[in-house]
């Protein structure tokens, strides 16, 4: 069998290539309908190389589309939508035109960042991965570097921590109603180690980890705590961190290992 670094689970390859949901394909594999290099495989977690191993589904060869996966360090001002009259979309950073078509499927973002938010954005043609990483039941952690308008003293810091751990109640915004957020974790940072675009030291710096993706969630959380986000940058999704060597607005393909760090195990409903 091929080098493990270039392989993926058989159930994942099958579901990514239109054979069914992860649950469907697990059933198919266990029923002995799938062979790899002419040998029947009954273990969904069996690793195969989609580019070189011959996979037969009920005797018919599987055409493995290679999905595209990019990491972008999103620039402030870029919008995550597919069309925008005023501002450049994140897709235009890749194609320099209004186009999302890529071999293997249309590109989409894994969740959205506000126009003024910077940092880690994943762009892919893998709809199953988008579902797993963004669907609330998976509770995928996302970490943001946050600069706050007001400094926070030690007793207030404790109060923020407690409120965040209990789940902050946020007010309605846009079409999104008021809601109780899931517990979030805050880590206070040494503010002197950071600087704003005009080289000033921010009033307060922290990292906030949330496990859902409500509209303007981080900004609404700090508003509910009586403060305001003045700078926001996503630095982590699941176990994948932003490559800080990527310049603002630039992107590169993800490695297989990075896709693994980003992805989560499919859960049954
Ligand atoms: N929370 C926000 O408020 N904005 C983002 O862009 C992402 C999370």
From TrEMBL:
PROSITE patterns named among the record's database cross-references: PSI_RSU, S4
Keyword RNA-binding: yes
EC number: 5.4.99.-
InterPro entries: PsdUridine_s_RsuA/RluB/E/F_cat, PsdUridine_synth_cat_dom_sf, PsdUridine_synth_RsuA/RluA, PsdUridine_synth_RsuA/RluB/E/F, PsdUridine_synth_RsuA/RluB_CS, RsuA_PseudoU_synthase, S4_RNA-bd, S4_RNA-bd_sf
Keywords assigned by UniProt, alphabetized: Isomerase, RNA-binding
Family indicated by similarity: Belongs to the pseudouridine synthase RsuA family.
Name under which the protein is recorded: Pseudouridine synthase
Source organism of the structure: Treponema succinifaciens (strain ATCC 33096 / DSM 2489 / 6091)
């Amino acid at each position: 069998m091929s080098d493990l670094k270039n392989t993926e689970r058989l159930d994942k390859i099958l579901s990514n290539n239109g054979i069914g949901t992860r649950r469907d394909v697990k059933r198919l594999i266990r029923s002995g309908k799938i062979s790899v290099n002419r040998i029947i495989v009954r273990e969904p977690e069996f690793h195969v190389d989609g580019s070189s191993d011959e996979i037969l589904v009920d005797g018919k060869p599987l055409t493995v589309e290679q999905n595209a996966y990019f990491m972008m360090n999103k620039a402030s001002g870029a919008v995550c939508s597919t069309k925008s009259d005023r501002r450049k979309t994140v897709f235009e950073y890749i194609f320099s035109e209004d186009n999302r078509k890529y071999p293997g499927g249309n590109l989409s973002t894994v969740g959205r960042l506000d126009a003024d938010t910077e940092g880690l954005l994943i762009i892919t043609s893998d709809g199953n991965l988008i579902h797993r990483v963004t669907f609330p039941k998976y509770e995928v952690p996302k970490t943001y570097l946050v600069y706050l308008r007001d400094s926070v003293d030690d007793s207030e810091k404790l109060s923020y921590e407690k409120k965040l751990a209990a789940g902050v109640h946020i007010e309605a915004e846009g079409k999104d109603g008021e809601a109780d957020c899931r517990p979030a974790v805050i880590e206070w940072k040494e503010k002197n180690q950071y600087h704003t675009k005009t080289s000033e030291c921010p009033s307060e710096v922290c990292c906030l980890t949330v496990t859902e993706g409500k509209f303007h969630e981080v900004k609404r959380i700090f508003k509910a705590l009586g403060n305001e986000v003045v700078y926001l940058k996503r630095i982590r999704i699941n176990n994948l961190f932003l490559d800080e060597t990527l310049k603002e607005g630039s992107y590169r393909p993800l490695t297989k290992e990075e896709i693994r760090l980003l992805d989560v195990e499919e859960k049954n409903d």
